[in-house]
Every structure is written in structure tokens, then in C-alpha cells.
């Protein structure tokens, strides 16, 4: 590989808005290699890849593609030259078919009418060529699971000539099986001489797929090394600039009355007959594959959806709690950090202060009038306590990195002082530094007697922070493990257990 | 209020947010002043001040409605119905002025509450529900007045009488509504919830805030303010005209939008809305004085609306470009 002439060369690439976000990036990519681009959120990975893909122009430096000057004015110009990017956010039209989405912008037509047969034939041929023939081109994208949508997005990027494919967090929504499929596709593309830039937080994937690793920190190039010379720990050290502290093992909890007990809770086929108890001071993890009903369970507990059957008991009460809406859940001391902080958690273009005090605004009010200064002081305290990186508490949350955004949502519930906190993927898209801060806060909350129920797709995260881990599989409760009883293998087996029974269920149904 | 922080922000806010609007307004005043020798006289401004109270109070309500990402098309009809009911009470039922006015206000509030409740409870777009209310209230106004203008006489003219220097109590009320409206928006729990609902209703729900009562309250409020506008109009005419306020909803929305309040919700300012009202009023008065024909006036008003929104969008983009860094 290294003896090939580089396909793409970057010299001194930089981007400055009000402040520099990227500076002095030198990089060369050879054909057929996979370069993993890593770094904390805000390190400049997305900016760099968007520059290469023609979405934004650099303010300094120059690029060369096959020894020719390369200055794409737009994404389509970059695509015409064979440089393609799959963005983190899906850009498919859910109300159109897979085939229409694939060829959007250049649909086969005659006199303005779509030639449907040609369209579906070409789509089918393309999907088959990249090994995705199990997705029906005639199906509406909105009907596909999120993993399949992601695969369609990638399939679209692979239409037409491709020299360089940039994948930005492609596996965030994928199951293990789909990830493997994606990796096979990457290997196939590499064999054809396509270079891959792979952006990911998941270091085990990076280790598995990358030939070389480039680490960015604060918009600067820290290191580019062959993966074989690196370990995951070393990558993390390069990203953070210092060692990430290992968590202390939490002492076992004294017996207590459960803060939350649920019995036979269910809703349709998504959540079926789930029972568990959660104690004060406990961090209880819920593992499971995407779509196994974990998020739905949290939404039931929070009253965001209504249960079909089962009961919820709070704080040892023998009378079932009536949780009919998020409002009633909050009144009863339950908080939720939702899965998607941008669309469900934050008022994005509003300030940190406003977002922090939202769930308990009345504390800062007298007869309906707000004490703005008191509100601001409280927000400042949380900014300091959680180490939220910002100019001031008046900064709008959309300008913050994912980790800092999540800290704002966390601050909201800390301020609300709820004693049962439900967290759905609290560290998705959160960089390692902020992740450690969030874990530390969760532990402190538990030490203060709060009960935390955490859904996460990151097993290592759950194994690090939780006292117990329950596993959901296909809507059912597949077991619960105390600290010391679990290992990755056991948890994964439990997570898959519900799916192997599926054919049987179909027969019965 | 206890420290300097809010007032400093208020000051910088005035400079930053209102500079463009104030400059536009000033430019228009100077332009018409140069074109017509009669424009820059006290008379012009007193006329404008007495012309705008009805538009102003409705525009404050509309600002709130747009902030929660709704819209209310029924303001003109509700205005007419309130005025009509008030006249019915005084003329046919022999009610005194005070109870009749209260009845008018109640009528507006009920109409608004109905629009709000129906659109919230059945999750219907407020555009459609208020369109229905527009027809209902207008029809009812014709029924109540027997489709004729009902003359009440000087009993009701105190709202538009000369309070001081030609300025009417109605104008003072409108100013009060502006000030209180801005304070409620920026410094009350209710205002904060409105902004939150307009920005991201689902996030508000998941933060444990019920958006429904807030939304119904906002629609009730605009109904109430429409009836205030109706009574102001009644007072000026000394009569209840069932045709009053036809098409005024568009003028109200235009004023709010010129002020820079977003139709997408979550963002807006009552002070800016007042600038929007002034811009529309100055434009009308100025063009009347330079003898522009009605069609010309309408074309120019239309262009101003579009230009204002374009300017706002441009500012937004620049802000976003700066934030991308």
C-alpha cells in the first residue's frame, strides 16, 4: 500500500469561522486503504471530512486529487470526481421507495414520467451488486428499520464512480450483523482500490477495519499511524491527551425498599411482560439490541407512551402508580434523558440557562414572574459543576458539542432533583472526556440515593458503571445479572436469545 | 432585576435587535417627510397614534400565537362579533356601558378559548380551526346586528376621546399592552413556556411541562385582545359595524412578521411587533399623503412585507454561519 501514489493529498488544510476549528492538516490517502479518523467530538473530524467532500470550502491550505489541484465547489462536484460521503444524519425521503431514493436527482424518465420498470430493475441490480438484495427496492424507506435505512444511504453513495468513500459514524444505528455486512462491503471496495475514510467513536471497530488511524485533537493533527502499531488504549490517550481514569468498583448496596418496581409491564409486541425492581442508590443498566424494546420500556415508565398491562409501584407503595403522561411522571419524581437529545431533549437554539431550568422553572419564579438573575446563577453553577464547555450559560445549546449538550440535559434533571432518573443512551455521540464526566455525575447521583435506570448499546459502558445489568431481547426480559456475574459473552447471548425463538412464535401466532 | 445583568442585556438587546427596525422606520419617516411637507407635523403622528391601537393589541396577541407556532385567522371576525354583542347589550337589552364592555371582552375570550381548545384537543392545525372561527364569528356578528351598522352614540367614545394632546386612551392602553406583553414574554414562567413550546413541543412534554393549557391560554388571550380591538373600533365609530375588521388578520400577521417574529415558532418579540405596526402605519399614512392610489399602496405594502422577511432570513443565515464555527 504505502508504495502507491496517494490518491488524495491535503496540505495545511484549515478552517476558520469566528475561531479556527481546524488548522494545519497534512494528510495523504493511498488507494485501497481504510483510514480511521478519530478524535473527541469537536476535534474537527466532521469539518475535515466535509471539506474533502466539497460541502464546505477550506480557509487555508490546498488539496490534490491524483496530483491535480482539487478545489470542489460543491458536493456534487466532489461526487463527480468520485469522492463521496455518507453523513451521520440520514438524508433519505421516507415517503419514497428505496429505488426512488437511490436515484433521486437522476430518476430514469421519459417526457417527465418516471420509467418505473427501469428504475426498479436498475435499483435491484445495484443492490444485488453490493450484496443488499434482501432489501426490496419497491419498499418505502419509511417502512425500513433504521439499520436498513443506513444501508440504503450507503448504497446510494456507492452509485456511480467512487474513488474515496467517507463514512461518518456509519454504525451508530446498526446491529452487529449489519455492521459485519458493512465491513464486508468495505473490504470489497478496498479490493477494488477505493479508499475509505472511516469516522467512528467505536474503537473496537476502528481496530477491526482500519489500516491506519489518524487522531485529531482540538482541530489539529495529533498522529497518523498504522493500526498494527496501536492499541485502543493508545488511541484514547492520543485523543484525550491524558489517561482516562478507570472507574472505582462500587461497593454493594445495603438492602432497601425499591424506588421503582414494575410487574408484567407491556405494550403491544414492543414490550412484553417486563418485571424488575430498582433500588435507591443503584445504577441499573438495560442492555439489548436496537429495537429490543429498551427505549419503549423507558417511555412506558415515563408515561410518554401508555402501557397495555402491568403495574408500576413507586417507593415501596403497594398501590400501583398512575403515570399517564410525562407531566405526571415528573410530578412523581421521575426524570428522562431521552435517546435523541436534539429532537427530544433540548430546545436547541435556546440558551444553556433556559434549557437547564426548564423542568423546574417555578423554583425561580414568584407569582409567575421569573428571577432571571437567580436562574442564571443556578445555570452557572451547573456549568461549573458538570464542566460544560461554553462561552457562558447564555450560549445557545446548538453551538455545543454532543457531550456538552448531554450535560445540559443532565443538569436539567439534577436541578429538578428527581429521585428516579431514566437515561436512554446517555453517551451516544459523546466524546470520551465528557463521557467520564457524565459517568462521574451518575455515580454521585447514585451515591446520593437516586435510582438510575440506564439504557445503552455500549456493553463496556454498562459493565463499567452499573450495579446490575438487565437484558432485553425482542421485547422480553431476558435476564438480569449482578456485578461479577456478567461478561460480554453472557450479556450478548441474552441479548440475542429472544430472536432465535422468533420462527417458533410466528408459527404459534 | 436584583442585579445589573438583566438590564444590561435589555440594553444590548435594544441596540442589537431593534436597530434595524428603528432605522427602517426612521428612513420611511424621513422619506415621506421629504416627499410631503405636511408629513412631519404633529397632526400626522397623532393620527397615526389614534389609528393603530386596535392593530397593535391584536398584533401582540398574534406575536404570542406565532411564538407557539400557531396562527389565528379569526381576529377580525372576533373583533366584529365582540363589538356587535356589546352594541346588542346596550341597545336592545338596555345594559350599562361597563357590563356591555365586559360582555364584549368575554365573547372574545370565549371565541379564542374555543379555537385553542379544539385545535389542542383534536390536534388540528390552528390555521384550519381559526379559519372556521373566522366564518363562525363573522356570521354571528351579522346575526347579532341584523347585518346593519348599529349606532350606539357618544356613550362609548371615551376610549377614543382626547386624553392629552390629541392622544386617546386607546393608544395608552395599546402601549400598556405592549409593555406588559413584552415583560410577560421575557420574564414570566408563562412566556418562557410559550417560547419552549414553539421551539420544541416534544422536548417540553418530556421535560414535564404540559403544553396544552399554555396553548389554550394563548388563544384565549388573542381572542380577548381581539375583542379589546373591537371595542376600540366601536368607540371610534360610536357604532358596531358587522363588516369591521374584514381582512385585518393579514395586516396583523404582516406587522408581526415585519417585526421579525418567526412563523416557525419559538422566536419573537412584542417590541419588534410594535415596530412592525408602526412601519405599516407610517407606510399607509405616508402614501396617503403623497397621494398614492390604493392599488399602489397595496403593492408597496406587499413588497415591504417580503423585503422584511428576506432581511430576517438573511440575518438568520449570517448568524448560523457564525455559529457553525
If you had to describe this structure to a student in words, what would you say it looks like?
The complex is a heterodimer of chains A (about 500) and B (about 325). Chain A has about 500 residues and is an alpha/beta fold. Chain A folds into 2 domains: about 10-240, Rossmann fold, CATH 3.40.50; about 260-495, P-loop containing nucleotide triphosphate hydrolases (Rossmann fold). Helix content of chain A is about 35%, strand content about 25%. Chain A contains 18 helices and 23 strands. In chain A, the strands form 6 sheets. Chain A has a 6-stranded mixed β-sheet with strand order 6-9-10-3-11-12, sandwiched between helices. Chain A has a 6-stranded mixed β-sheet with strand order 17-20-21-15-22-23, sandwiched between helices. Chain A has a 4-stranded antiparallel β-sheet with strand order 2-1-4-5. The radius of gyration of chain A is 24 Å and the shape is globular. Residues about 500-509 of chain A have low confidence and may be disordered. Chain B has about 325 residues and is mainly alpha-helical. Chain B has a two-stranded antiparallel sheet. Chain B contains 13 helices and 2 strands. The two termini of chain B are about 35 Å apart. Helix content of chain B is about 75%, strand content about 0%. Chains A and B meet through α10, α11, β19 and α13 of A and α8, α9 and α13 of B.
